[in-house]
Amino acid sequence: VDAVKACKVDPFYVKGYSRAAKAYLCLGDVEQAKAQLMQARAKGADVEQDLRSISIVEKAKTINGNTLTRENMRLIEKAMEIAPNVEQFKVAMGRVLLTRGKHQEALALCRGLKVDGSKHASEILSIRAEASYLIGDTKAAERYFAQALASDPKNLHAKRFMDTVQAVQNNKQKGNQAFQIGRWEEAYQHYTAAMNVDPNVRNSLVAQCACNRAAVLIKLENLEDALVDCTYAIELDESYTKAYLRRAHIHSELENFEDALRDFEKVQELDPQSPDIRKLVKEAANNVRKYKYVDFYHLLEVRRTATDVEIRKAYKKACLKYHPDKNAHRTPKEKRDANRKFKHLQDAYNILLDVQKRALYDRGFSAEDIDSGVADASDDFGDMNMGNGSGDRYGSTGYSSDRRRYTNRG
Q1: By Cβ atoms counted within 10 A, which residue in 166, 278, 354, 406 is the most buried?
Q2: Helix 241-253 × helix 223-236 angle, to 10°
Q3: Contact present, 184 and 216 (Cβ < 8 Å)
């Protein structure tokens, strides 16, 4: 208004026309903005850049906010910079933010947004509903979708998305019911269906379905696939404590003790009050320490004084027993145990038939320590670090007692 008045007072005040044009453009009044610029041009002003801005706003006004291409999204973002008070652009920007995965920002934009003076316009409620769903607040999503459809029953976008939400929820609930009565295969199918309703949706609700499907796979003794599902759930929701906890237990069962320890520690970080978490972290740390030493003599079923000939003979016998082909018909747990022991057999063969490595092993060093060179480094400084002169890295007590307790792990 002030700029227009200034131009009336001084018709040759070029800056006044330019300022008035920008003000009109900010409000989305393209025609008035053009009129002001034409007058400025008539007075000799260079208005080409301002006319380009008007062209961007005009093009953006023709975009359907429900069908956004990458080019259209970039155009809307530029139009928002030029004309930030245009309701149409604000609504379209809400959809752009959703498409870019900025769900919280879309919600924040909607809080101050009005269409025709109303905060409860169907377009706004639809964006709030979709954003709520994508961050995992399904109750809020269903409430906003219902309100959006009540405001405008022809809002097909809201209807399609509400159908998606309900389909995911229904399959998840059916999966929960089947799980509770022990119908594992049925539960698996329902959780899978929930995850596949819309492959493009990756939110905390889908993470819950993935974590629940992992629980089913544990019941079916398919720990490897359960591990994959837990990892997927964590990718979708990095603060999902239950998924970390479930994955930690799977790692423990698979004897991936270092991975289990990391996940238990993550649970403790996210939820220090989680039941028994301090105990679980301590147990995992103990398993990491104990698992480094495998009793190869026990695995081969030979005396610690066994000769090379006896070790070779025992090795061949054990290989026949634990070879994967010989255990293909066993349960998943039995196969994992056999595969683990078969791997340890290779370590046993390499270490016990090497005089120097066997000497280090008999002093309490693990296969990992020997292969990594830790044992050699410790041996170089042995007398300085041992302190007891016994020649045993762990002293006359301590690790040897742990080793005896761990014997049955093979």
Answers
A1: 406
A2: 160
A3: yes
pLDDT at 409 over 50: no
Rounded to 5°, angle at Cα 56 from 20 and 52: 65
**From CA 243, how far away is CA 265, in angstroms rounded?**
13
pLDDT given at position 66: 61
In terms of average pLDDT, the best of 143-147, 199-203, 317-321, 382-386 is 317-321
Quote the tokens at residue 366: 């693990």
Report yes or no: 68 and 95 within 8 Å, Cβ to Cβ. Answer: yes
> Taking the CA of residue 309 as centre, how many other CA atoms within 13 Å lie in the half-sphere pointing to its CB?
0
Over 80: is that where the pLDDT of 4 sits? no
Residue-wise pLDDT for 247-257, tens only, equals 999 999 988 89
256's CB contacts (< 8 A; 6+ apart) are none
In this structure, are residues 365 and 359 in contact, taking their beta carbons and an 8 Å threshold? no
Query: Cβ contacts of residue 182 below 8 Å, gap of 6+?
Result: 219
- SS3 per residue for 314-374: HHHHHHHHHCHHHHCCCCHHHHHHHHHHHHHHHHHHHHHCCHHHHHHHHCCCCHHHHHHCH
DSSP β-bridge partners for residue 115:
118
CA–CA gap between residue 278 and residue 271 (Å, rounded): 11
The whole-model pTM stands at 0.61
Query: What local confidence, expressed as pLDDT, does residue 377 receive?
Result: 55
Name the CA dihedral angle for 205, 206, 209, 210, rounded to a multiple of 10 degrees: -140
User: Which residues neighbour 63 within 8 Å (Cβ) at sequence distance 6 or greater?
Assistant: 72, 75, 76, 92
Q: What is the mean pLDDT of the chain?
A: 83
DSSP 118: B
Q: Give me the torsion for CA of 13, 14, 19, 22, rounded to 10°.
A: 150
Coil vs helix vs strand at 115: strand
